[in-house]
Amino acid sequence: MYAAHTSLTRSFETRFLSAQRVATMIAAKGLAACLADMAACIESDFRRWEAFDKCARVASHSAQGVIELMPIADQQLYAFKYVNGHPLNHRLGLSTVMAFGVLADVATGTPLLVSELTLTTALRTAATSALAARLLARPGSRRMALIGNGAQSEFQALAFHRLLGIDDFRLYDVDPAATGKLLANLASMGLRGTVCRDAREACTGADIITTVTADKTRATILTGDMIAPGMHINAVGGDCPGKTELHPEVLSRSQVFVEFEAQTRIEGDIQQMSADFPVTELWQVLRGARPGRRNASEITVFDSVGFALEDFSALRFMRDLAEELGVADSLSLIPALDDPRNLFGYLPAAEPLRDRPAARPGHLPDTQYRVAM
Ligand SMILES: NC(=O)c1ccc[n+]([C@@H]2O[C@H](COP(=O)([O-])OP(=O)(O)OC[C@H]3O[C@@H](n4cnc5c(N)ncnc54)[C@H](O)[C@@H]3O)[C@@H](O)[C@H]2O)c1
Question: Ligand 1: residues within 6 Å at CB?
């Protein structure tokens, strides 16, 4: 039936990475190695800051959560991520954060890769957090409070272990089942965790505090009296208008670092501060243009919201890993045409429209028809 349409035998395919495929790729390389290499990938892209066409992400808010689109491009590659944030999804058996994304060729607009990004987001968020902490935490940091023990937490713990040598985790979550799950998963990776009664206990004596909670509200996970000189705070869960984790006093006592200022002013914990509250973008520290931590007693905050450039790097990383591992799944997403102006010719040959029998729901007709005018 398709014999006359040689275009259909020509292959133009978009690479496809399913969630299962990405999970097996991570297992093949090793999660810790993926986190380290992804951090290196993110660092090299942040160092090329001016090469990117950047914008704050586009958010659609609802009473339950948010759905966001995150585009970015350099001269060669365009990327976007679709991602949601619905803190009550667990009640429906769904993840708080779910994502997928695309990598495309700038010169032609051809989609090169469609990939899951739920797992990949957890990796890139943790890799970015650890990258920032390597610049901002006190050298020799060993103990991290981990507040919010949900889907992102294991990735955060392992990234900080691998990139900074953190080996003492103090855990707290309002849901003891989440902490039990994290403790068991840490043990399976050979990492030690201590369950704490509350956030204050978790923070006591910590070098680094990671807040990675999910609640669609102005939460106050950390107050000024929980913070000691020299701490580094990795604030991950305040990433949306009206969704914060830090008391303003914590911010006013700290040097605050952000990914992309224009976006973080809207979404980060600094949404609580005045428009001229001073912040430093991470790329400036990476390039040595601005200082990171200046002394051992300074309090530093990485006000993380998640920026499209991290997903760009993560998509590149996954594309290259798939190549390295010989993964060749693909999607027939775009019609491959012998004559690109004859899109109509891609349709199967057909009888005149008037003779067309009605298609039964769920069944494609077994004969193909030309579309009649
Ligand atoms: N900055 C980024 O780049 C980035 C990336 C991914 C996710 N996030 C954010 O990180 C947060 C966590 O994501 P997740 O996928 O792990 O969500 P999740 O729903 O799987 O886990 C969130 C955990 O926070 C706990 N929690 C809620 N309120 C708390 C409180 N007051 N004190 C202690 N624990 C509390 C919940 O019980 C739950 O276990 C979300 O807010 C999400 O939007 C940010």
Answer: 85, 87, 90, 96-97, 121, 125, 147-152, 172-175, 178, 212-215, 219, 221, 236-237, 239, 304-306
Q: How confident is the model at residue 371 (pLDDT cuts 50, 70, 90)?
A: very low
CA proximity to 84, closest of 74, 102, 69, 73: 69
Domains (range + CATH), the chain: 3-119+311-331 (3.30.1780.10), 138-306 (3.40.50.720)
pLDDT tens digit string along 87-114? 999 999 999 999 999 999 999 999 999 9
Give yes or no for a contact between 173 and 201, defined as CB atoms under 8 angstroms apart: no
Tell me how far apart the alpha carbons of residues 13 and 111 are, in angstroms, rounded to a whole number.
Answer: 9
Q: Which of the listed residues 82, 84, 97, 153 should we mutate to test ligand 1's pocket, taking the one with most ligand atoms within 8 A of CB? A: 97
Question: 5: pLDDT confidence band, cut at 50, 70 and 90?
Answer: very low
Indicate which residues carry an active-site annotation.
239
Whether the CB-CB separation of 200 and 147 falls below 8 Å is answered with no
